[in-house]
Amino acid sequence: MPETGYCNTDEGQVFWRYDSPVYGKGSVQKEASQRPTLLFIHAGVSNHTLWDDQVAYLTSTGWDCLRLDMFGYGLSVPSEEYLLKDPIPPVDHHEHVHMVAREYHMHRERLGNFLSMNKQFVVIGLSRGASTAIDFTLAYPKYVEGLVLCTGVVGGFDEPNKPSEQALFDLYDEFMAKKDVENATRMQIRVWGDGTQAKEGRLTNKKVREKLYWWCKDIAERELEGKGGWAIPCKDPGFPPPFRLLQTINAKAIVATGKYDESSTTEAMRHVAQNIKGAKIQEFKAAHMVNLECPKEFNEWVEAFLEQFTRDYKSSDASKAR
Questions:
Q1: SS3 state of residue 67
Q2: Total Cβ atoms within 10 A of residue 171
Q3: Which of helix, strand or coil describes residue 214?
Q4: How far apart are the C-alpha atoms of 131 and 229, rounded to whole Å?
Q5: Is the dihedral of CA 105, 246, 50, 302 positive or negative?
Q6: Buried b vs exposed e over 297-320: b needs ≥16 C-beta within 10 Å?
Q7: Nearest alpha-carbon partner for 62 in 16, 29, 107, 109
Q8: Are 188 and 45 in contact (CB under 8 A)?
Q9: pLDDT tens string 252-283
Q10: pLDDT per residue over 97-107, tens digit each?
């Protein structure tokens, strides 16, 4: 059974969920405890359930999985006191990730298996989650052993979209200004589902379209109420622009792009892959939500990346035995 909880912040509460490994016949629990925990950060058009398929798959192969709802999304709700402030103070999403990581460590300590566990993380982020993962890694490098960065941006790297793409974002803004949630939601699906590099209606997977619809509708309604999404301002990370610091990241990394995704995101991910030492980049035949459109290929790609962490600890144990 999953375990859930909240971190209390100055702004409200941040929800987290921990899914433990599912050990099959012949599996070795000690090996799993020596692996880093997988820490998932969702996109700005979703919530922690974005990762349901990945968590189900990876826990079945022995991985600990930790997720959170970023502040203003899903079950992470601002307090009334915070919303009454004028202006509303910006929030620090990567600090919230740090709070969740510490709470997770304390939770595992209460369970009595903290001393033997690997206390680092492989952080997996998509879109806004990818940029938050980069900020968290730069602020707390000792926490991060690996990075999976998907269809995101990096702070300070400003690559303009093509005029045809920008026109789609402008339409969304017009619908939101009119408080037309339905059409604003459909425009989000057009951008993040079909992709700005493809024709409208390209995404034919009804399950993915439906997920995007309900996520984006919920977020649009929160934004109009000033209670979530982009209505919650973000604090500057507080160090030089992250895109200038990528070469200082020592964590092992892989990067994902979508064939039909917006051009600015793709260029940002290429920049990330070129500037994190040893990072490899993979293009998926998808738009923005690569894990939803290509779940089998995505899961196998992540799993292949994670194999090295298991090998590292097997090698470490072998060395100690000698």
A1: strand
A2: 16
A3: helix
A4: 15
A5: negative
A6: ebbebbeebbeebbeebeeeeeee
A7: 29
A8: yes
A9: 999 999 999 999 999 999 999 999 999 999 99
A10: 999 999 999 98
